[in-house]
Amino acid sequence: MRILICAKDVLDPDAVNAYTVAGRLTLSDDGREIAETAIPRLMNAYDEQAIEAALRLRDGGHTVAITVVTVEPRTREHLKRAVALGADETVLVRVDRPLDTVGVGRVLAGYAEAFGPFDLVLCGRQASDDDQGVVPAALAEFLHLPMVEMARAITIDGQELRVVCANAEGDEVVACDLPAVVTITSELGAARYPNAAGVLRARRSAPSEVTMEQLGIDEKELSPRTELLSLALPQFDSHCEFLSAEDPESVARELLARLRSIGILP
Amino acid sequence: MNKPIVVCTSESDHTSMDATHAALALGRQLSQESNAKLAWLIMGELPAGASAVGSIHGVHEIAHAGAVPLTTSTSDAVIPMLAEYCKRTEPQIVIAAQTARMRTVLPRLAARLGSGIVANCMKASANGGNLEVVAATHGGNLRSTLRFTGPPPHFILLMPGATETPTGNDATPMPELSTLDPIPWTEERVRVLEAARPTGPRLEDAQVVVSGGRGLGDRRNFDYITTLAHALGGMAAASRPLVDAGWVDPTRQVGLTGRVTKPRLYIAVGISGASQHMAGCSAARVIVAINRDRHAPIFRHSQYGIVADCAEILPALIKVAQEPV
Ligand SMILES: Cc1cc2nc3c(=O)[nH]c(=O)nc-3n(C[C@H](O)[C@H](O)[C@H](O)COP(=O)(O)OP(=O)(O)OC[C@H]3O[C@@H](n4cnc5c(N)ncnc54)[C@H](O)[C@@H]3O)c2cc1C
Ligand SMILES: Nc1ncnc2c1ncn2[C@@H]1O[C@H](COP(=O)(O)O)[C@@H](O)[C@H]1O
Prior knowledge:
The structure holds two protein chains of two kinds.
Chain A: E1 2-6, E2 9-11, H1 13-21, E3 41-43, H2 45-59, E4 65-71, H3 77-85, E5 89-94, H4 101-115, E6 120-124, H5 135-143, E7 147-157, E8 160-167, E9 170-177, E10 180-184, H6 196-204, E11 208-211, H7 212-215, E12 226-232, E13 241-242, H8 248-261
Parallel strand pairs in A: 1-4, 1-6, 4-5, 5-11, 6-10, 7-10
Antiparallel strand pairs in A: 2-3, 7-8, 8-9
Chain B: E1 2-10, H1 18-33, E2 36-43, H2 50-56, E3 61-65, H3 78-89, E4 93-97, H4 100-113, E5 117-125, E6 132-137, E7 142-148, E8 154-158, E9 176-179, E10 191-194, E11 208-212, H5 222-231, E12 235-238, H6 240-244, E13 265-269, H7 275-278, E14 286-291, E15 304-307, H8 310-322
Parallel strand pairs in B: 1-2, 1-4, 2-3, 3-9, 4-8, 5-8, 11-12, 11-13, 13-14, 14-15
Antiparallel strand pairs in B: 5-6, 6-7
Helix pairs in contact in B: 3-4, 5-8
The structure holds flavin-adenine dinucleotide and adenosine monophosphate.
Flavin-adenine dinucleotide (FAD) sits at the interface of chains B and A.
């Protein structure tokens, strides 16, 4: 069984949080990018969990070949990480033009069609930089495949895929025939750490590069339909009133009295 | 009149009408800015008083697609119906509240129609035909302004809780209600084997939320959160690390990738206030933060702060909250 995993490199979100909190996040001159060069780029955590989901299928006795594909990345570290974790093959698609989310979905679909067939396509539920969660559904549409979002567990029985989805109301179990596109959510659980053999393999690995010519996508399909004009840091007007007193009970009493006096508590 | 603005909602949006109101209010704003009709497309059962709701938001017409099959996580049947609707009505903008279903449906529809889509939208302006939206990115640390440059319809997913819940005001004439001709739906390829079993009230609807974070330190300390929530007539919730650790059910996670709450009162205990968390509670009327670290970012978002060890303050709060008023 061939599994395709779509993986993106993103700025380490914890570092972005830390820079923001410290008031040190700066933007590029054109205002369209985070300028901080000290923030490392990592594989989007949900995409790493997608690899984990594939590895669990392998652990479960399925013979799986894992291909990890990335479109126009900034770094290749995440592809090395993918090999270290157990990917058999990594692919980097070079694109010579700006893409919007639907465009990325189109390119990924182009790759899956040209280099497939794949039995299963796994994506992260969203990329922690743009947070859009649009690419996987667009990809599924371009491939004419059924789509299941928010998977926390996947199993395969013959040609049938079974997915436990972490939905707003609770877990839902669904099934569909393969091939299909599935997005993975954090409820899947933490991804494993690479073992020593994996790290060695990763060191020697290199992604194969694919160009747009090889995908045969009509240029018109890729012209961006949305354009990023600028980024901005939201402003908060902080007005926290600190309550303090000798002992916890007095503070507690003070707080509830305040909340009652402003009508927030009955 | 210019091409219409369409707001699209489905049954699950109508459990609480907040998201519907927010989407309709944005639709009205854009329809006024661009001198266009506002249409409301409702999939599945009609919500109670749909016409009156439409009227307070200046909706001109309601199109009802009652027969389209809506199962929770799948979308095959909805896509061709919406594609056909878009073909017939040629909307310039389609707005949907960002529910689980629409998060799958709208990107697929955009891909099918060759249109652009932006999720996590907080505001939009018609801007003389060059639609611009502001969306939350990087976990809520940043706002991005984007312009739609492709062919219409432009698709907008409106982030829950991003806007004040508007109720509309100056009622306009009752909108016309038409039933959408049945369009041959395709069959669902995804089969639901076990539907989700909702466990009681939704966090999204709670008026008081007491939320615990990693600062609780010990799993047993979450019992304090539950007890305090009950004493205040509210619900218990958590930040993501507690969900990842398996202490708390995922349906109780507050944040960007959890539930978006908008209670009267949100008490955050041992939560640092990462923007991914704040995305799920910043719409609260009053936020109270309890944290050992006076410099924790959560205090920037709070009206009241208590610098204390949670293990000391929580029992005291429970005791006082349980006393008769
Ligand atoms: C893509 C993505 C999506 C995410 N989605 C979400 C989401 O939906 N929801 C969410 O919550 N997070 C989310 N996160 C995680 C988020 O970035 C933070 O890591 C998380 O919110 C931190 O949780 P916390 O505040 O409980 O823990 P920490 O950040 O570790 O904070 C613990 C706090 O407790 C305080 N503390 C410690 N001991 C005590 C004590 N004894 N008494 C009182 N206070 C004490 C500390 O001072 C600290 O401020 C997401 C992250 C990513 C990358
Ligand atoms: N440039 C990319 N290359 C490969 N996969 C991507 C890329 N962008 C997005 N994806 C996939 O789509 C998911 C959602 O991304 P997004 O829609 O940008 O939030 C990610 O978790 C990845 O699985």
